[in-house]
Amino acid sequence: MALAGKKLRGLVAATFTPMTSRSDINVSVVQEYVDYLVNKQNVKNIFVNGTTGEGMSLSVQERKRLAEEWVKHGRGKMDNVIIHVGCLSLEDTKDLAAHAASCGADAISSVSPSFLKPSSQDALVLYLKEVAAAAPSLPFYYYHIPSLSGVNYQVRNLVGKMQLHIPSFRGVKFSDVNLMDFSLCIHEYKELDFLFGVDEQLLGSLVFGAHGAVGSTYNYLGSTTHKMLAAFEEGNLKKAREIQCKIQEFMAFVFALGWGLPEFKNIMSVTSGIDLGPPRLPLMANWKQEHPETVRAELKRLGLM
Ligand SMILES: CC(=O)N[C@@H]([C@@H](O)[C@H](O)[C@H](O)CO)[C@@H](O)CC(=O)C(=O)O
């Protein structure tokens, strides 16, 4: 069911990895999670084992198991199951890419290696070319997230090189606030998909033609974000701004409490009613289950629940 010829559009939820209280992966709730996204949030694309899913903190075996479960339960319900395969080791990354293809994923994506980093754009393209070649039948998306990877080559420059050397290259998951770089990518490479990854600034990216968005908040604010997308499509900027500002107010509330990914996971458990458990170490160290009522009350106050 690979994306061949299809365009990747709309909202993509970057899934959290369900875990037990001991931080082991808990695949028993994946089916319920898929149904929640489809039926309650109307979100039919998922990005598995990425940042939100703590992909880098999972073993290769765990990542394979999760990919299989998400693909299995997404079949016939999800439009696209995209598996993030990036690791620090090229061999592990290729292994995960080949596995994603064998288990029926629709596309793969990879970040740059982030410890021993590529020393040039050409080095990065060479690396990603090998990754994509391990799953040549699957569309390949470069995952640009400089705040975490520390690799911040201008995407506009990279894209031309990737197009030249990677036959399955189909676009970029752009998790950065450099809207000029993002905009010029869309302007110059009309045949590719560019998905924005800073949820609280999505409206800004739409102005420049974002084809879709990948993010953590679409797990529980997918339905609200769809209303913003619809308002933007209708040319109702006032309404679109109002919705984006509500989402921003919620994120400001979250950030003011010093919350990050561990708490985002908790917010998803509270809003969906699916127990996703704690994150894994090192994130687990400061994790405490926030009072669900605090989250619910704020979402309610903002009209987001
Ligand atoms: C740094 C980070 O985690 N960014 C998130 C955003 O969705 C982010 O959680 C959101 O904008 C709130 O800040 C995504 O870009 C990451 C993502 O899509 C992924 O999980 O791979």
TrEMBL record:
It is an enzyme of class 4 (lyase). Transmembrane segments: none annotated. Keywords: Carbohydrate metabolism, Cytoplasm, Lyase, Schiff base. Pathway: Amino-sugar metabolism; N-acetylneuraminate degradation. The keyword DNA-binding does not apply. This is N-acetylneuraminate lyase. It comes from Staurois parvus. Pfam families: DHDPS.
